[in-house]
Amino acid sequence: MQTIEEVRRIRLGMLEREFGGQVGLSAKIGKSTSQISQWKNASISATGRERAMSSDVAREIEKLTGKPRGWMDTSPGYAELHPDDRIAHAMLVMESMTPHQLDQAVRVLDTLAQPPSEPPLKNGTEDK
Prior knowledge:
Distance between the termini: 57 Å
Strand content: under 5%
Oligomer: single chain
Order of helices and strands: HHHHHHH
Low-confidence stretches: none
Radius of gyration: 22 Å
Shape: elongated
Structural class: mainly alpha
Number of strands: 0
Helix content: 55-70%
Number of helices: 7
Largest sheet: none
Mean pLDDT: 90
């Protein structure tokens, strides 16, 4: 399980990608790029402790970036980390299905995953 600091570092990286890097995120949230970098890299402070984002700052960042309250503290799911991935898309679709639809979808996937009993058809026709 990830610590809150680790989750917030992942979320900072996601915000950087969304807002055009550290410079874009810096402009959006009103924090310096060096501050963002220190949070993201858990830089060691003069006191010897890792620099970490406070809960108040996390809530401020959520507000300024239009994210729901608690977003910075919630581990991202596979689909969030891989938005262009076909598996992530399938997972999102399946999450919205009723239990009956999900059962049918799993049966279809199980069938499709079986090795073919015959060589695949070329251009939709059998070789003769």
